[in-house]
Amino acid sequence: MTNRAGFAFSTRFKVRYAEIDGQKIVFNSRYLEYADVAVTEFWDWTSIADVVEEWRHAEFNVRRAELDYLSPFRLGDEVEAFVRIEAIGRTSITKRFELVNPTTGTLACSIRMVSVHVDLASGRLVPLPPSIRAYLEQLPTGVS
Questions:
Q1: Minimal CA–CA distance to 59: which of 93, 95, 86?
Q2: Phi, psi (degrees; rounded to nearest 5) at 107
Q3: Predicted confidence band at 113 (pLDDT cuts at 50, 70, 90)?
């Protein structure tokens, strides 16, 4: 994996035919799917589910996503998705994604995503358990 300042984690995958549009570039909505793939790998990398019991019962909903499209990916391109926790709120986790073409080093898309901790039965926001907060705060940041 490539080193990128501010990130301790990344994962790679290739652009598939089903992800491109009539312009032969990755369709804009697919970038959120890429973030979903990357954050799933990120949570596995953190091992939080193996260590923090409350994580196994925690539920999160995406509240906000901001995307900056900077350069398109094309069929067959490799995507390197960098992920980090940017902020931890009372009920939220803000994640930063940078989707990079590792062959050229070009940043194709940056994403800032806020997920909120919810009680599924009531649909209400609930504070992050202290054990989850403490675990997330000790994760490597990639900042030297």
A1: 93
A2: -80, 115
A3: very high
